[in-house]
Records
---
Amino acid sequence: MPSLEEELFPSTPGKVKIERAHAMNRQFNRCFSSTSTMFLWALFLIALTATYLSFQSFVDSGSRYFAASWGGIQWEKQVRSSSQIRRSGGMSVLVTGAAGFVGSHVSLALKKRGDGVVGLDNFNNYYDPSLKKARKGLLNSHGVFIVEGDLNDARLLAKLFDVVAFTHVMHLAAQAGVRYAMENPGSYVHSNIAGLVTLLEACKSANPQPSVVWASSSSVYGLNDKVPFSESDRTDQPASLYAATKKAGEEITHTYNHIYGLSITGLRFFTVYGPWGRPDMAYFSFTRNILQGKPITVYRGKDRVDLARDFTYIDDIVKGCLSSLDTSGKSTGSSGKKRGMAPYRIFNLGNTSPVTVPTLVSILESHLKMKAKKKIIDMPGNGDVPFTHANISHARTELGYKPTTDLQTGLKKFVKWYLSYYGYNHGKSVN
Ligand SMILES: O=C(O)[C@H]1O[C@H](OP(=O)(O)OP(=O)(O)OC[C@H]2O[C@@H](n3ccc(=O)[nH]c3=O)[C@H](O)[C@@H]2O)[C@H](O)[C@@H](O)[C@H]1O
């Protein structure tokens, strides 16, 4: 008789196999001792096989779907052609979030000046994907190809860097929106943390390594009340998960700069607005509601103080993005190894002229020639900050950044676009 210890820890592995085989034989004989039991077992096995086969076909069709969304000779041809540089000293840029608001504008501006551009976007439904498709159509007509895929797809990113030796990555894909972070926190981690790391991994392994310019946010200043906000101010008091993921992005990009020699430029955008904008943002949803005669909710800060934002017009932001790419300096690494120090920069891109939310509403009312039905409520504790105000002297010195569009002018352009895009043109004119 083997001891208990020997049974648990057999001295020879074969021993347990033989004894198990004997035991299983005895079980088997008992189970199949009658014909009806055998019949039941046969039925069970058939059902099991059928389930397995249908599961396999589901998996196969799934992988066929993913394989079909990118890859293949035709796809590679489109990617290569879109990345063609058509000016001397130009760059080839991978723009993530290219079907997004800022991404589509930056892609178009790069293409128009002769740079090569390949877009990447997952066309998620955070807001109406038909607007993203329309932006894609616009870019397509200018020769910019947008690859449909997710940042977290490391195989896709590796393939893209395989097909094109991108000199730059303009990383604008993100889960945006301050208040939505309370509804869907996971989406912020998926895009702004996991997606960012997957992208940086691809950049660090690429040969040559591209220079990376990416969208941080004014929200990193959080509860900072020193105005105007300067890049050296504290950013360790985020007021929302969105802000926290953007702040994390600044730290994550720093490590890739430090360890792998990636050239990094982080841009803290201040409430960007304009034509082809984001429907989830206040100026956009206010316009929609005013036109439809629906009420708008205007938040008010502590002690009945109006909230204010340093609203920044899209064309100014695009100029800041392009200058950032132009001055980014090279990454130094190769084959995933750092070969020297590379630039690590952070800039505020704001308008440096904050406007209150009620003033934003009056400007919209004057452009739309309609009165808003305002519902004024105290700001809920949902991640908002009372005001933002950018100090842009660093960007002015290093990038030649000089915003030129005030809110009145910028909203006029936005309203004109809105009325035309949504078919309000007939019988309506803008101021
Ligand atoms: O700079 C940024 O980094 C961020 O800018 C933007 O965030 P915010 O500045 O919060 O813009 P936005 O939502 O338009 O609200 C504007 C004002 O209207 C107030 N607001 C909003 C909604 C509403 O129903 N009522 C209201 O009063 C609201 O309280 C606020 O005072 C981007 O969305 C974000 O992705 C990020 O890029």
---
Amino acid sequence: MAQVKICGLREAAHVAAAVEAGARYLGFVFFPKSPRAILPAQAAALAAEVPPGVARVGLFVDPGDALLEATLAAAPLDLIQLHGAESPARVSQIKARFGLPVMKAVGIAGPQDLDALWDYALVADMLLVDAKPPKDAVLPGGNGLAFDWRLLVGRKWLKPWLLAGGLTPANVAEAIRLTGAPGVDVSSGVETAPGVKDAALIRDFIREAAP
Ligand SMILES: O=C(O)c1ccccc1N[C@@H]1O[C@H](COP(=O)(O)O)[C@@H](O)[C@H]1O
């Protein structure tokens, strides 16, 4: 049964829907350019309602220490998701300085991108295997774009990992079957418009991913 992360949550009703349906990770986006961006104080209010056993994930894009410090001081988080161009050294530095596990996102467009997963597996606690964004994209993730899942067939990494990128209630079961992903992460695929989550889609997604 695949573990599910629902990312980009901003409303208590959607947090509750995800938790009740069995989500294992809930993501809060601390990247101002995202339509899913949330303030630390708002995330803190949502995070306070999350029961033990469900991890509260803070998503950052190339964050400086000051942003991490201020966000972590305001909102209780269990896992830091790094979704920018952070180097392996920066991942190690953030882990050491802030004392939280780190999940590093790696964008995949072709077989040449898979090597980076090995480098990050040495320093990150988890990997997030996502589609590489188009060159002109404003967001480095959360674009609802999938990559060729066949690239992952038969691959294993040293760390737990989640599959992401263009997943929806309609395709997530096939994505898990093909790749063997132990977990999946979704944002756009459970929305009716960018940044607008839908409780029914959240439930559908979790049911399809973790039947
Ligand atoms: O969701 C966002 O707005 C976002 C912004 C910046 C970086 C990553 C973001 N989301 C992550 O992107 C992937 C895939 O999202 P989608 O399902 O294709 O929309 C997922 O890991 C989100 O956590």
